[in-house]
Design goal:
The chain is α+β, with helices and mostly antiparallel strands. It contains 3 helices and 4 strands. Helix content is 23%, strand content 32%. Strand 2 and strand 3 form a beta hairpin. This is AsnC-like helix-turn-helix protein.
């Protein structure tokens, strides 16, 4: 699995719509609205490097309102969290 972190600058008036359109793209697992010099961070998870180009260059960059992107390819993951387990609430011994 290839993970790419994509920094997205967007038309300020369309950030929510841009985020929703990017999140709906195949290969995009998550989109975050963030503070700082960029507007959104998209996590792209695909099987091959060529698929990163397909998602980012062919589709994400063409979403109306995207003004620029910067893509970073992850080399190695140092932690893998099971978020569902981390946030689940259960009663032990019930």
């Amino acid at each position: 699995m290839i993970t790419a972190i994509v920094f997205v600058n967007a038309d300020v008036a369309r950030i929510p719509e841009v985020a929703e359109e990017i999140a709906a793209l195949d290969g995009v697992s998550e989109v975050y609205s963030v503070t700082g010099h960029i507007d959104l961070i998209a996590l792209v998870r695909v099987r091959q490097h060529e698929d990163v180009a397909s998602v980012v260059a062919d589709r994400l960059n063409k979403v109306p309102g995207v003004t620029s992107t910067e893509t970073h390819i992850a080399f190695r993951a140092y932690s893998q969290h099971d978020l569902e387990a981390a946030f689940s609430i259960g009663v032990e011994g019930a």
